[in-house]
């Protein structure tokens, strides 16, 4: 009986280890919904149908990187204030924002027309990494959070399984998402070197 119990517990440990590995592949989303970061309501919400063919990577440049939930929450509020009040947009421009706390902050969300990449706002997920990533690579927890979000979207059939991943600079003249981060995403699955750069001032919005 004692031996059986010991065997059972050894088996349980092995099973838990296997499940642990499996859990890593299907990570829980470290997700922060709008109410949690005290977002202002959007002025209006326009939806578009999925599955979404493009994932577009951004950096904020400003605000600078944040590393705690409290600081990232403040950064989210600052970005939304800038986009809604100074720029006059309906809402924060991005679909999602990733903080240096490793968490995924809900921006407009999936299938909501964004304001982050002209001509692609109604066919992309705009994911922004808080900080200036021209020289420094974002920490591993931020890169992992982006991948977790994309994997989740694909698994839920919200993002097309054959999605194309690009940086903001491939759609308009900008240094975004920063040289170092841009170099990094070129190594990611589904990255496309396509260039479709148009000056947004030359096209109707
Ligand atoms: C992805 O698959 C869809 C549906 O089959 C197709 O229309 C589209 O052209 C594909 N896109 C890419 C980038 O291969």
Give an account of the 3D structure.
Disulfide bonds join 66-72. The protein is an alpha/beta fold and 205 residues long. The chain is 32% helix and 15% strand. It has a six-stranded mixed beta sheet with strand order 1-4-3-5-2-6, covered by helices on one side. Strand 3 (96-98) and strand 4 form a beta hairpin. The N and C termini lie far apart (74 Å). Bound molecules: 2-acetamido-2-deoxy-beta-D-glucopyranose. 2-acetamido-2-deoxy-beta-D-glucopyranose binds at residues 160, 162, 164.
Strand order of the largest sheet: 1-4-3-5-2-6
Quick one: biggest sheet? 6 strands, mixed
Share of β-strand residues:
15-25%
What is the global morphology? globular
List ligands, each type once: 2-acetamido-2-deoxy-beta-D-glucopyranose
What's the gyration radius in Å? 19 Å
Mean pLDDT: 90
Distance between the termini: 74 Å
> DSSP helix count?
4
Helical residues, percent: 25-40%
Order of helices and strands: HEEHEEEHEH
* Overall strand count: 6
Uncertain residue segments: 10-24
Structural category: alpha/beta
Domain Peptidoglycan recognition protein family: 29-172
Keywords: Disulfide bond, Immunity, Innate immunity, Signal
Signal peptide: 1-27
Domain N-acetylmuramoyl-L-alanine amidase: 40-178
Notable traits:
alpha/beta, 6-stranded mixed sheet, 6 strands, binds 2-acetamido-2-deoxy-beta-D-glucopyranose, disulfide bond, Peptidoglycan_recognition, Peptidoglycan-recognition protein, innate immunity
């Amino acid at each position: 009986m004692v031996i059986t119990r010991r065997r059972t517990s050894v088996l349980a440990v092995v099973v838990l280890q296997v499940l642990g590995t499996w859990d890593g592949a299907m990570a829980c989303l470290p997700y922060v919904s709008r109410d949690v970061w005290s977002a202002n309501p959007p002025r209006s919400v326009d939806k578009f149908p999925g599955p979404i063919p493009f994932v577009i990577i951004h950096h904020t440049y400003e605000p600078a990187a944040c590393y705690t939930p409290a600081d990232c929450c403040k950064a989210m509020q600052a970005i939304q204030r800038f986009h809604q009040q100074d720029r006059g947009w309906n809402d924060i421009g991005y679909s999602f924002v990733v903080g240096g706390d490793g968490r995924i902050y809900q921006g407009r969300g999936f299938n909501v027309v964004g304001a982050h990449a002209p001509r692609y706002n109604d066919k992309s997920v705009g994911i922004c990494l808080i900080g200036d990533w021209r020289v420094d690579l974002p920490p591993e927890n931020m890169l992992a959070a982006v991948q977790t979000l994309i994997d989740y979207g694909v698994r839920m059939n919200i993002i097309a399984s054959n999605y194309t991943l690009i940086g903001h600079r491939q759609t308009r003249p900008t240094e975004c998402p920063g040289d170092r981060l841009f170099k990094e995403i070129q190594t990611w699955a589904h990255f496309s070197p396509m260039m479709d750069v148009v000056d947004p001032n030359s096209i109707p919005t």
